[in-house]
Design goal:
Layout: H1 2-11, H2 15-23, E1 28-31, E2 40-43, H3 44-51, E3 60-63, H4 70-79, E4 84-88, H5 92-105, H6 108-111, E5 114-117, H7 124-127, E6 132-138, H8 144-148, H9 151-156, H10 159-179, E7 180-190, H11 199-208, E8 212-215, E9 225-226, E10 231-233, E11 244-251
Parallel strand pairs: 3-4, 3-6, 4-5, 6-7
Antiparallel strand pairs: 1-2, 7-11, 8-11, 9-10, 10-11
Helix pairs in contact: 3-4, 10-11
Length: 252
């Protein structure tokens, strides 16, 4: 099958152990912000990516591709009801789930500053130029762990899809960069395995937007791998966490 051949070439001797870990149980942590509120379970690597954004109360923040909502909860917990949070997702169905997660899991004072929207992420740079202090772009990606769990998606998988997604990710990242204020930071993330969707996307934006510089994320989760521009957390070395890639960029 093309999926297995593709990733075996990428990971070499590591692939058998990584494949087994991808098929295994993930490692989630419980997010709960009140005894009367619904808990939400989120991969610890996803929590790490959202926390890497460095959100503080009073900031204007965009979660560009926010559904199903776990990272929005992390960001909201950092803002503590001060500033603004735009949680955006283009899909109406995913947006409904996002709203439910926010309503069920956050105290009202934190919810009051959240605006759920359904815009095309590629338009933010045009219509909301230099509007945000922090942006999280958790980009749509190959979602390889989910592909493995679905025989239908596995049969349909192709390397062409990886290339197509990387082009879309690049357009979303360019939009995020243009929507970021000078001095602002963004985190670009995926749950993809291929560098084409990760470091390669970041490398291209650094060439296209000279105002952007990557920032090394200082503290890592156990077993995380540093890449050229970011961090890759994979379940074979990180006790089931991930896969999550994230890179932190600042606009100078």
């Amino acid at each position: 099958m093309e999926f297995f051949d593709y990733y075996e070439k990428l990971f070499g001797e590591r692939w058998p152990a990584l494949l087994e870990a991808l098929k295994g149980e993930g490692r989630a942590t419980k997010l709960q912000f009140g005894d009367d509120l619904e808990p939400y379970f989120l991969d610890e690597a996803s929590v790490f990516a959202a926390e890497a954004l460095g959100v503080e109360p009073g900031m204007d923040v965009l979660d560009m591709c926010a559904a199903p909502g776990g990272k929005t909860l992390v960001i909201a917990s950092k803002l503590k009801g001060e500033g603004s949070l735009q949680s955006n997702d283009r899909s109406p169905d995913r947006r409904m789930r996002l709203k439910r997660v926010i309503d069920d899991s956050l105290p009202e004072s934190w919810r009051s500053i959240i605006n759920v929207t359904g815009y095309d992420g590629m338009k933010f740079g045009l219509h909301k130029k230099e509007s945000y202090d922090r942006i999280l772009l958790d980009a749509p990606c190959s979602s390889d762990r989910h592909v493995l769990a679905s025989p239908t998606h596995l049969a349909e998988w192709s390397s062409k899809r990886v290339k197509r997604l990387s082009v879309e990710q690049g357009a979303l990242l360019a939009s995020a960069v243009d929507a970021l204020r000078p001095g602002g930071m963004l985190v670009y993330g995926t749950c993809a395995l291929s560098p084409m969707e990760n470091d390669d996307v970041v490398k291209k934006i650094l060439k296209k937007r000279p105002s952007m510089q990557f920032v090394e994320i200082p503290e890592l989760l156990p077993g995380a791998d540093r890449t050229e521009f970011g961090v890759h957390i994979l379940p074979d070395r990180s006790e089931g966490r991930g896969p999550i890639y994230c890179a932190k960029l600042i606009k100078t």
